[in-house]
Amino acid sequence: MSTLESIIDLLTHRHPGAVEVLVGGTDRSVEDIRLVEQVDQVDDAPTNALVVLERGLAALTADYRFDIVVRRAAAREVAALVVVLPADVRVSLTALALARRAAICVIRLAPEVDLTAAVGTIVRQATDQLSVTVDRARAVSEAIDGRAFGDVDTLLDHVGLLLGRTIGLGPRPEDDDVLAVPAGAADSWLRTTRPDDADAGALLEMVLWRIAAETTRLSADRARAEQVSRRSAGEVLVQLVAADRPARAAIAPSARRLGIPIDGWHVMTRIEPDNLLEVAGDDVVAYEIRDDLAALALQAAASMPGTWHVGPDPAAVLLMWTGSDAPCQETHARLRRQLDFVIRAMTGRVRGLRLFCGTGSARPGVAGLASSATEARLAVSSARFRRRSNTPVYFDAVGMRATLLEWYGSPTVQQSIDQLFAPVADLAPAKRQAMIDTLCTYLDFQGSAARAAEVLHLHRNAVRYRVQRAFELLGIEEDDADQRLFLHLACRAQRLGEVSV
């Protein structure tokens, strides 16, 4: 049988400086634990109970209302009252006097103490001594029927208090001293210590089955909510990647509402299954596998700090990492290790699956998100061209230089670029090169005239004029994503290859 002294010692050890005995002795036994949210619930406390007052009742302690609480506790012969109070709040002197006469210990907990954790400590201290009764079983059923629990942890904390024992989730136990029932998910069992009394054990097992049903329901609801949220956010992410600038501006508010941090720094990864239909056997199975792979990619990536989102593009899995600041060298290294892990997880899930993976560079803002996605698509094309499957290919200054030169080396591409720059072929070489440099720098910074002006040592108005004039001469629609991408690649290839156009 637990004593107040042992419970107070444990609380003091767990929460040093936050526990104080205001009045009363600590040698009484504790036979029950009750958490009360209303004053009249004190009338239901059994003899020698430790009654914990919810935070909402703290306001009662300074006036006559706490006298009423103490009188009711004295009538029930409770062992102690626990209140959550700042140290500078004075407790009703008459209430303390009443508690002293009734041999009730009044214990103060500082407000910074997590009340659920503190009560859990008390329960664990007294677990072996608290009996399982029909009243406790009924209280659990009533709590489940009448209260909407937001998550499994809150449910288990609450019913654990009502039962006077710790209820947890874990694998199926090997020890006969642990009572357990399955709780829905694979290898997930509700577990608690088995009472010595056989009848109490049978009653407790019935209660656990009721708790397990609610645990399974909450877990299923959470899984459905996460799936809907992931799919909604994923659809918006795909729209952002595919949209032109005006459309992205219109989509941005929806993205923010869904929790996509579009204003941070982004690294986009594109993962394209090459033989999914072949390994799946039919379109329906292939669709199910693609959805499963998207969820798996998000799960595998999420162990790295930062925010991750996944987009279920029909032909690929789009994986986006977002950080609040530009990633440093260490963060880039961690990202690469994490993406290696993601690819291994995906290929490990589907035997024989062949993936092509490309990753863009870190870019800020919603325009940067789209640019990084474009780079990821180009990196995937490079991976396919080189047949580098099941390994990420990165769009960076070194890796993509050769790719761009190879791309420009195609006669068809050269002809297309010649046609693109034909309207400015008669310009003096220096003017033509200045125009290309301005366009390339402007596009490198996702259309920011201010940032391009800093690099080119020009006034931003001069950059805007040059860019607008270049678009007019070349017949390019800036809001057309395909034309803008081709122009960007043509400028990059021309600068890298140092060729005349």
UniProtKB/TrEMBL annotation:
Top-level taxon of origin: Bacteria
Domain CdaR GGDEF-like: 250-380
Classification via InterPro entries: CdaR-like_regulators, CdaR_GGDEF, PucR_C-HTH_dom
Start and end residues of each PucR C-terminal helix-turn-helix domain: 436-493
UniProt feature coiled coil, ranges: none
Pfam families (alphabetical): GGDEF_2, HTH_30
Protein name: Helix-turn-helix domain-containing protein
Annotated source species: Pseudonocardia oceani
Highest classification ranks of the organism: Bacteria, Bacillati, Actinomycetota, Actinomycetes, Pseudonocardiales
